[in-house]
Design brief:
197 residues, alpha+beta, Chorismate lyase, 31% strand, binds ligand ISJ, lyase
């Protein structure tokens, strides 16, 4: 798979393997760089967890996604965007893309997910292979930072830098790229859940 054009990756976000230190490291680095299901982790740190599905439809993938999902140029994908809510507070904005070339055998549960967590269909499926976690600091103008802020409306955070991670999943002949944008409110979750202990 050829490397993405440097201009595209630099323009949108430099997705780095998580082994690089973050500076300044957000307090939720362990959540950012550790594997496992984010859904399970959020459920363990809150009394109630909900997936608010914002949309699931066809769209043109972002310029820094195409190569990651095996497409030679930006093209049409299935796009799902959600807010993960803990105790009704949105803590993660998630964006998932699947190339249109995928068929029902690749991701049989994806199209009918609704407000079920994608994670529940990925983790535990022996056919699913998970790639390396990458992370990026999203500049204010990154499409996913703009969409996360739009989803939050008047509650959008003031912070200009949002940390995100993404991971490529493969199943049969299909690929699926999950990007999770960590909202500042996730910090409160860690703090309060520490208090809960
Ligand atoms: C991949 C996972 O699924 C989570 C749920 C998502 C969804 O329902 O769209 C998207 C990203 C994840 O935060 C996970 O739980 O780790």
């Amino acid at each position: 798979m050829s490397a993405p054009p440097r201009s595209a990756s630099l323009r949108q976000a430099q997705w780095q393997p998580h082994v690089l230190a973050l500076n300044p490291p957000p307090a939720y680095v362990p959540w950012l760089v550790e594997g496992g299901s984010l859904t399970a982790r959020l459920k363990a740190h809150s009394d109630s967890f909900r997936v608010q599905c914002l949309h699931q439809r066809t769209a043109i993938c972002l310029s820094d996604e195409a190569v990651a999902i095996g497409m030679h140029h930006r093209g049409r994908v299935w796009e799902r965007e959600v807010l993960l809510r803990c105790d009704n507070t949105p803590v993660v904005f998630a964006h998932t893309v699947v190339p249109m070339s995928a068929n029902a055998n690749d991701w049989p549960l994806f199209s009918a997910l609704g407000e079920r967590s994608l994670g529940t269909t990925l983790f535990g499926d022996p056919l699913v292979r998970r790639g390396v976690l990458e992370f990026a600091r999203l500049r204010e103008g990154h499409p996913l930072a703009l969409r996360a802020r739009a989803a939050l409306g008047e509650n959008a955070p003031d912070a200009h830098i949002l940390y995100a991670r993404r991971c490529l999943y493969q199943r049969r002949q299909g690929t699926l790229l999950v990007t999770e944008v960590f909202l500042p409110s996730v910090l409160e979750l860690i703090t309060t859940s520490k208090n809960k202990r």
